[in-house]
Prior knowledge:
Blueprint: H1 3-17, H2 22-91, H3 96-141, E1 149-154, E2 157-162, H4 164-167, H5 177-183
Antiparallel strand pairs: 1-2
Amino acid sequence: MNIKQVILPAFTAVLLTSCVSSKKYKQAQADYATLQSQNTSLQGNLNDCTTEKNALATAKSNLESEIAGLNKQIDLLKQNNTQALKQLEDLSVISSAQAESIKRSMENIGAKDNYIQTLQQQMARKDSLNMALVMNLKGAIGNLDDQDINIKVDKGVVYIDISDKLLFKSAKFEVTPQAKRSIG
């Protein structure tokens, strides 16, 4: 056998078994590494989501049990309310004599209300008459804005206060002419 016959098939076999270039092989390895890291990241996210799903399922079951408890309380409160309404219906039955008595009491209260309103109107009228009397007296005395003369009506009695400085001069016992005109 010839060396060429042995080498040629061996060389051909070597060439046929390595049909990918080293550049493509390195690119494929880089893609594989990228995909591997993405897979690891997604596995971590999946684990986080699973944990969160379990926590939400627990919270949901807790809320459902709380809702069931609250619904039981609502039913109990409705029953209590119904019983209370029935008791009130039993208690609210009054006789016609009691109803007539209540009606008369309400009429008496209305009459007393009218009497009180009349008294209030009369008091307001009396106060306005007293104010008119005070204004007329101040006008008759002289100056309406005079701070030395004070007029008030209390319990039907008219009080007129005249200050000392208007009546007398300092260290004198004689009444001033202005005071004589105001009094006079």
